[in-house]
Amino acid sequence: MFRRLLEPDNVTTQPVSVVIDGRTFLVRSGDSVATALLLADCLECRVTPQGGVARGPYCMMGACFDCLVTIDEQPNRQACLVAVAPGMRIDTKRAAR
C-alpha cells in the first residue's frame, strides 16, 4: 500500500480532479501522475509488448520507463515525470507497442 509521508503543517495544496481509467479521483496539485496512480491503487500502468508482463511505477524519476501511460490521448508518457493538471485523463494499459 502506497502512502504519503507526513508533511509539515505549513504546507498547503489544492485538490485536483483527474480521471484514471474512467474513474474520477482527487489528488494534490503538484503530484506526479505516477503518485496519483499509486494513491488510486492502480499498480499496473501497462503490459510489456513481448510477454504481456505487468509494469507499474518503479523508480519514480524517469529512468526505468515502467510507468508509461496515455495522458490526454498522448501515448507513452512517463507518469513519474508529468505533474497532474485539472481534468487530466489518464489511461493505463494503452501504451503503443
Cα gyration radius (Å): 13 Å
Query: What is the string of SSEs from the N terminus onward?
Result: EEHEEEEE
Low-confidence stretches: none
The total of helices stands at 1
Q: Estimate nothing, just give the exact number of structural domains.
A: 1
Task: Describe the protein in words.
- The protein has one helix spanning 33-39; strands at residues 15-20, 23-28, 46-47, 54-55, 68-71, 74-78, 89-91.
- The mean pLDDT is 88.
- The chain has one domain: Beta-grasp domain (Ubiquitin-like (UB roll), Roll), CATH 3.10.20.
- The chain has 97 residues and is mainly β.
- The protein is globular, with a radius of gyration of 13 Å.
